[in-house]
Amino acid sequence: MITFDKIKYHSDLGNLKCGICGEPFRADTDIYYSQKVSGYVCEKCIKRFSKQQIEEFLVLFNTYKGHFGQFNISVMTLKHMIIEFFDLISYTSHTDIIELNMRLRHQALLYGYTPEQLIELMKRIIAK
After folding, report:
1. DSSP E strands: which ranges in 4-128?
2. Neighbours of 11 (CB within 10 A)
3. Which of 14, 41, 85, 97 lies most in the core, judged by the most C-beta atoms within 10 Å?
4. Closest Cα partner for 53 from 119, 120, 111, 116?
5. DSSP tag of 23
6. Which residues pair with 17 in a beta bridge?
7. For residue range 55-68, what is the model confidence (pLDDT) as tens digits?
8. What predicted TM-score, i.e. pTM, was given to this entire model?
């Protein structure tokens, strides 16, 4: 399981941003650093998401870039995103389902959808 070192942000650390939400850190605020996945996280995200989710988010954002809620949620509905994902699986020779799954989760996070929202909608689509 991921662990965090709690440190005080100061200007000597440079212009750091939260690895989850992308918010810049302010002087003398508590920030959290994970050596396991190499990322800084703000207190708001530490409180909002589980350690497991934070670890997953940091891996996805370190790999594919961006941050949670970076894009306007009204532009891409989660249902449309999932349908595009299933179409991509149907019409491509790309067989790395794990990578496709990671990309779908990353895409959902960029639009501010939580993993729980993604899973719930996928269950409903598959059940139809």
Report:
1. 5-8, 30-34, 39-42
2. 9
3. 41
4. 116
5. P
6. 24
7. 999 999 999 999 99
8. 0.80
